[in-house]
User: Fold fructose-bisphosphate aldolase from Roseovarius marisflavi.
Amino acid sequence: MTKTSQTDKIRSGQGFIAALDQSGGSTPKALALYGIEEDEYGSEAEMFDLVHAMRSRIAQAPAFNGDKVLGAILFEMTMDRDIAGKPAAQYLWEERGVVPFLKVDKGLADAADGVKLMKPMPDLDALLTRASAAGIFGTKMRSVIDAASPSGIEAVVAQQFEIGKQILAHGLMPIIEPEVTISIADKAEAEALLMRSLLTHLDALAEPQQVMLKLTLPETANFYAPLVNHPRVLRVVALSGGYSREEANARLAQNTGIIASFSRALTEGLSAKQSDAEFNAALAAAIDDIHKASISG
Assistant:
């Protein structure tokens, strides 16, 4: 029943998915934005303790609940730790009504052919087994598209779907994330190539298999409507991709059926130096803004 309830919440819930999955490479930047500079911790272990404290503070804030936050994407170390005395995924679902996801990729390979594929994941099956046992509902994995390269984009999508099928075999819901870099000159052309490739791979999925898609907000409003309405897609979510929260929300509000899955835009304005009252108020305002944009399309 839990899996059915979580699927229904993600499919039709009026809210968004929080991305709390900064990894080793992006954690120093996330902490700096949170007001903790690199000279304030002396080791990687201390760094991860600090970012877990930040994530725990977010997860326990009064506004961070299933009314507006449908799901949360966790980093592996977060899944392996406790929040308020409970395993993180269990805490999110049982105490907050938030569906837990897990980032499973190991980062990006070197750029080639206008894209960055994902690095190999030789231990993925073992991680997926642990994730399932921990109560994780689904996964997320990210590739990057830096140019309108037909062969590069097809390689990204093919890799994503190949690994997505491996994830489905473990009974987990894959979020496929082929991020298009927002600053490239040929962004619209890249989006057209990406949608064509995604539709081809979605059409090849066997019924009743479904995946989720996490996409950069498009240059043309509702451009991804064929993906939103595809029977093999559970939900389409949007990444903020470097846009400010204000701009990301404005773009999101123009795209019917797409909800947010923001990371930096969610935590914008939060600080370790804030009192609990200040922190909770700032997070509640961010959640309200992102929720409004997610449901207004």
Q: What stands out?
A: Residues 276-296 form the longest helix (21 residues). The first strand starts at residue 16 and ends at 20. DSSP finds twelve helices and eleven strands in the chain. The mean pLDDT is 96.
